[in-house]
Every structure is written in C-alpha cells, then in structure tokens.
Amino acid sequence: MPDADPHPAPPHGRPWAGEPRRRDLVALDALAAAAYLLAALAAPSPLGAAGWAAPLMAAVGPPLALRRVWPVPVLAVVAAGAAAAVLAGGGVLPFAAVAFALYPVALKARRRRFEPTPTVGAAGMVVIVLATATGTPACCGPLPSVLLLGVPALVGTWALARVMRERRTAAARWAAELAERAVAEERLRIARELHDSVAHSMSVIAVKAGIANHVAESRPEEARAALRVIEATSRDALGEMRQVLGVLRAADEDPRSGEAGGGPPGAAPAALAPLPGTDALPALVERAAMAGVRVDLAVRGAEALSEQVGAAVYRIVQESVTNVVKHAAPARCAVRVEAARGRVRVEVTDDGPGARVLPAAAEGGHGLIGMRERVAVYGGTFAAGPRPEGGFRVAAEFPLPEARPGAAAPERAAADA
C-alpha cells in the first residue's frame, strides 16, 4: 500500500547499466595473461630453483587468455603446470595463475550438487601443497610462503566467486520479482478500469431487465420503457468500454512512431475522451434513477479538482451508487462531495435495502477494495459499513495533491488507478 515501494532498490545496490561484451572480457583476459607472462619472465629465480622452473612458470600464462572460453580445461592445465613449477622451486607466483583460472570455474559452480570443477581446483591445490611439502630440497625453501600466501589466495578466490555468484542470483531473482510485480500491477489496473466502467451499467441493465421480464404481460408500456433504458445504458457502456480500451492501448504507444499498440500498422489512434470527473455525476444520478434509486447530489468546490482527482471522486461515487443499485434498490441515496481547505471529502449514504427487485448479486466483488486503493494513492482514509440508523455509508477523505509534498507521483499513479 502507500508504505510499500513499488520499485524497490535491487539487492547490494544499483546494478550495472549494461554487461560488458564477452569478447571484451576475453581481450582483458589476454592482457592479464600477457602481464603474467612478462612477470614470470622478469622475476628472479628463487634460490635453489631448478633450471626448468622459470619456463614452467611462464608456460602457465598463455592458457589464461582462454579461461572464459574453456574454464575447466584451462584450470586443469594451469593447475598442473603450476604444481610442476612449484615442485621445481618456482615460488608462489604460479598461485596467481591458478587463482586467476579458478575464478570463472568457481563462479559457475552449482551448490548442493557434485561438480567436476571444484574437484579440479581442490586437486590442484592439494598437488601443489604436497609437492612443496614432500619434494626435493630445492622446493622445500618456499614452503612457508606457499602456506601463508599461496593457499589463502586460492581459498579467497573461491570465497569471492561464491559471494559474486550469490549476488548475481539475488539480482536475477530481484529482476524476476520486479517483472512479475509489473505484470500484476498492469493486470490490476486493467481489471479496475473495466470493473469501474462496466459494473454500474450492467447493474442498471440487470435491474431493468428484471422489471421488463416481470411486467411484460401485465404492463407492456412499462416493459418497453425498461427496454429503452437498457438500450441507452448499453450504448453508454459500449462507449465507456471503447474509452477504457483506448486508454490501455495508449499505455503501449510507441514513442518513436506514435502508434498505439494493439492496432493495425498505420491505423490512426482512437480518439480518447477525457476521464469522467465530477461534471459527469449528474448523468450518473440520472442512470441510477432509471434503476429505481433516487440520488440527492450535492457538490461543492469541485472546480478546484484536477482531472485525476476528479476521476477518482467520480469512480468512488459510481461504485458506491452501483452497490446501492445492486443491493438496496429501490432506495434513496445521498451523495456529498466537498473540496475545501486542501482536502476532498466524499460521502455516500442510503436509507437501507428496500424490496428487492432482483436477488442480491453474488458476493466477492472488488468494488470496496478498488475504492480503498484509489484513496490510498493520495494518502487518505476510507471507511465503509452499515449505519446505526439503517442503511449503508461510504466515506472517503484525502488531501489534494497540491496541498502536500511529493504530489506529482500520486497524481501520476492515480491516473493509472
């Protein structure tokens, strides 16, 4: 509701605007492999190292350029070459190559499932440590540095990859939830608009159809009058339906071509009527009277309302009167709309259920929920329930957007509500 952020921030901060291309990453790996090769060739040979230690250290560098293309084979080759280099007394530099090759493998390793990639990395670490600890005297010298620097580097690389893997999973989950929420919000918007535009007319049609069926033989003139009301109301409902569909198509409009989605290419977009506001309330009262509900309408200060606020007021009154038509007709209804001192107050009361023309409509509608959500958009209050003296009361009050900070966002949200 109002406290919920409709667009929450992604986990661990804002995501990158775009992912780098694969060939760019491979090029960076090639540069890193070249840098390692230069470092291996320029590094002085450790004391007591075998003559073939330096070539082995340099040999593990070129495969690093392909660590993203063939991660597991590259890790196996680099781990084997690094183990041989350390066995020859090459020091801890080969560990850097192993860590560099290990990262993409650990990044894609799946948890709770046996994978050969962690096994390859662990085997390489074990081989290097055992080779250093039990090898010839030439390789026994760097054992402390291997244990203090080399092994922690590999363990840290695996831990870093695991953290990054979890962050990527959380970001993907957040993106999926955001997409699902957008779809749900769009469905709710469509359902609310269709409900608000059609429910009132269908209620009038249902009532008049029941009357026509009841008096068709005994009072044919009254039956024909009811049919004329059904005809007029049906035309109004079709007009509102076209308006709602036009608004929904406009939401998919292509900003580059100006064409509305859902229509044939090149077709002119449908003309959109303005949103119904408080000036449409008298016509609503007339339609309610056709269904047997006498409405006493009082509107004050409506000229100060914006189009979106006026539409919200109209929908609240429309749904309230529709409920009277469905559940209490024939009855008397009072509608009060007042805009003053930066607030809008809407109250709809009726004098209780009269003789039912038709059985009560099935429960489980979303009219009260929709009204409550419309009011919540503006940070207002909503109440609906039976009155102590009989009848039903719907009351809504909310501040005008101009009267409180941060008005622009609710104004736009109400246009979609």
From TrEMBL:
One cellular component (GO) term of this entry: membrane
DUF7134 domain ranges (all copies): 22-168
GO molecular function, one term: phosphorelay sensor kinase activity
Transmembrane segments: 30-54, 74-107, 119-137, 143-161
PROSITE patterns for this protein: TAT (PS51318)
Domain (Histidine kinase/HSP90-like ATPase) ranges: 312-401
Name of the molecule in the record: histidine kinase
Organism: Streptomonospora nanhaiensis
